[in-house]
Specification:
47% of the residues lie in helices and 20% in strands. The chain contains 7 helices and 7 strands; from the N terminus they run αααββαββαββαβα.
Length: 220
């Protein structure tokens, strides 16, 4: 195996681990692995907002599961208190019911309802979606002009949903990259667009270099 192949394999593994966090909607923010930790660290939400989104996902998913059980397949993804609903439900009434349930969760600012009215996806379909999402994450990691940690990705039935606080340039660049990936049927963007100036203000300040103590002989 060449060095390049090994690097790609490592990136894909990191991407898969990161996607487990996103797709499960119930995992902790940080899991083992420096690459995954780095992705979380470069998330442009505050740590408080990240925790709040995790709490929203847990509460909303729990309430949907309690109310509707296995009649539905609903994935709740929250970014900056904006909820994205994906998955499948049997009819329009159930679709609206799910939205009403999640809107009542504390701190939810809005809901993007992308639930499909159709038969619940099979395990093989979900596995294929996970594979596509892994390729999406690996592609974003490999793009040197993008910060992969700024994007949150969810895939359902070949459609890739993208969230994040990104500039117009980043949104366009990421969308074009994802559309070129084999297996991607459609890209739905739910970005929070920021300006280039906003991005500069968000960039973490570089730590000042350590300064060696000055001896009396070196004093000014």
């Amino acid at each position: 195996m060449t060095m390049n192949q090994m690097q790609r394999l490592s990136l894909a593994a990191a991407a898969a681990a990161s996607l487990v966090v996103t797709l499960s909607a119930c995992a902790p923010l940080v899991i083992g692995g420096a690459a995954v930790t780095a992705l979380v660290a470069t998330d442009r939400r505050t740590s408080g907002a990240q925790l709040e989104d995790e709490t929203i996902e847990l509460k909303a998913s729990g309430r949907v599961r309690e109310a509707l059980g296995d009649r539905v397949h609903v994935v709740v993804t929250s970014f900056n208190r904006q909820i994205l609903l994906t998955g499948e439900v049997p009819d329009q009434v159930t679709r609206e019911t799910v939205e009403q349930i999640v809107r009542k969760v504390d701190n939810v600012s809005g809901v993007i309802n992308e639930l499909g009215i159709q038969i619940i996806s099979s395990l093989s379909q979900r596995s294929n979606d996970l594979f596509i999402a892994t390729k999406v994450r690996a592609t974003l990691i490999e793009a040197s002009d993008l910060s992969a940690g700024a994007f949150k990705v969810q895939t359902e039935r070949g459609t890739v949903y993208m969230m994040g606080r990104v500039t117009a340039r980043e949104a366009e660049r990421a969308t074009n990259l994802v559309r070129s990936i084999s297996g991607v049927q459609r890209v739905v963007r739910a970005f929070e667009i920021i300006t280039e100036d906003d991005l500069q203000r968000m960039m973490p300040r570089q730590a000042a270099p350590a300064v060696a103590p000055v001896s009396s002989a070196q004093g000014r």
